[in-house]
Amino acid sequence: MSKNLKTQTTEWSTEQSADIYGINNWGADYFSVSESGEVIVHPHGNGVGVSLRNIVDGLTDRGMDMPVLLRFSDILDSRIKKLHEGFGRAIQEFDYQGHYRGVYPIKVNQQQQVLEEITEFGARYHHGLEAGSKPELIAALTYMQDPQAYLICNGYKDEEFVELGLYACKMGLQCIFVVETPSELELIIERSKTLGIPPIIGVRLKLSTQASGHWNESGGERSVFGLNPSQVCDLVDRLKEVGMLDCLKLLHYHFGSQIPDIRDIREAVVEACRVYIGLVNEGAPMGILDLGGGLAVDYDGSHGNSEASRNYSLDEYCLAIVENLTSTLNENDVPHPNIVTESGRATVAYYSVLLFNILDESRFEISDLPTELPDDAHELLHNLMAVVRVVNLRNVQECFHDAYYYRDEIHQRFKRGTMSLRERALAGEIFWHIVTRIAKLTEEMEYVPNELRGLPAMLADIYYGNFSLFQSLPDVWAIDQLFPVMPIHRLNEKPDREVVVADITCDCDGKIDRFVGQYTTRDTLPLHNLTDQEYYLGVFLVGAYQETLGDLHNLLGDTNVVTIQVDTDGALHYSRELEGDSVADVLSYVEYDPKRMIQRIRQLAENAVRNDAITAKDRRQIMEAFENGMRGYTYFER
Length: 638
Ligand code: PLP
Prior knowledge:
Bound molecules: pyridoxal-5'-phosphate
Low-confidence stretches: 1-8
Distance between the termini: 32 Å
Number of helices: 23
Structural class: alpha/beta
CATH architecture of the largest domain: Alpha-Beta Barrel
Oligomer: single chain
CATH class of the largest domain: Alpha Beta
Helix content: 40-55%
CATH superfamily of the largest domain: Alanine racemase
Shape: globular
Strand content: 15-25%
Number of domains: 4
CATH topology of the largest domain: TIM Barrel
């Protein structure tokens, strides 16, 4: 499918759609708009593409309801390939002597399919795994059995964790314990001596370098995890004391996820490299430098150093790391270690797309402004009317304050019983007229003061989407994370509505009201008028951190998940389907017993039969409805 966009109508082109949603900025090589106005996925990066609208048609034909999370296996394959090829080129360019060995941090998306596919696609590069807990270690051991790949164990480790890791070493895997706190070392020494299995030890360093961005508390001297330089020296002394310095092979740091600025990445590498050299000089064999995660995703497509972006490409990231390592190590005549990165977000974010349909809308509507107020209208109402008449570009902010002041005064008087319900209603209408005019005027202003910036969103229509923000996009709620959202079809039509998107939980936080635009964020999303045909939106780049962090707010459960594979000739395969939670599933997660619930309803219905409130036939219908409800999807079913 061609990525060249053509004008579809005289008034609106698909290029304009691509621009307003910024898809060519954040889509990397994976997402574009077709000539017929649909979002196209290019799972191999560039090249062949498939229309998301066609995928939805295929799902509907198969009886699969919205919302659906799509996983594109080929995108995952492509991400791993790009990471390794990027480091491969940088290693060649600087004549670096070590290898690159990526590891995938399981916490970023722990789903079984993700682990299975990462180990499959990563096998040719000896791509390893990072486990931060016992369950993650057990999952890792079952899927990653390559003796050349690294299995990095971060996080708190108890006796069972350490024993499992030691047995993994005994079986020939490179399972590395990263010491995160001083006390962990004693446990590793003790278990290893008892079992007679030498461990591979790493140490997590607390960097003094601190990155910008949302997740920067993982770095800096006061970060929670890792050892400071003096504790690192204590660790070396202790290993020397017990004759185990030969087990110290890895230095690790992780100074935050989604690091937007390449300068921070360079600074951290150099600081860690100095410590690495220090450890080599202490006599430790070393050989592995693990730079943790942090490789960012350009969610807003601005290529800048804001929290939702990054000011570097994947190639620049690889070159910056290898260049700094090569020069620092060469200056000190230290052999080049293998480089590990624990890139999670950058590996899996592009892999998943959330699709949902719009169920309903709520328009922002105000009735006509009265031409005149009644003779006996309160003075405050006259004052409000005067504001409507005088508001213009020069007095916009003053009128905004006046409108709020008079409206609030009227509310106060209404509460005290000195103004009537009709007066209060009229005040509301005049007030919203003023706000609407001010919002329109802000479009002509060169600079919009902060307090006026939220007005378009206040006046926006609401579209209700068939999804739960808390289940599928928890970071939007928790940390205001920005994900690209756009319609997956009708992109050859001009969108004539400005909306915010609410989910179907009855929670006022369950809405998306920050969107990616072209080189900017916006408070409303331009969308099309609803018709009698389904209207579908996609939320993109949701493969990292969202699935397992999601919760059961309003008992809306896991969505359906469908895996899509696309051959190099463009043939589409629905290769795996995972049914989302049923009502009975989510009820059982919160301690209900669906069988007992059915019994209780049966009892209630039988009592109603006995009391002649319903017939036995009614009872059958009621029970069928109840049991169907239990089996049904937790989301809105058409
Ligand atoms: N490594 C460790 C130790 C982490 O804590 C994390 C996540 O916070 C990662 C790797 C993954 O980071 P990212 O998703 O930014 O690559």
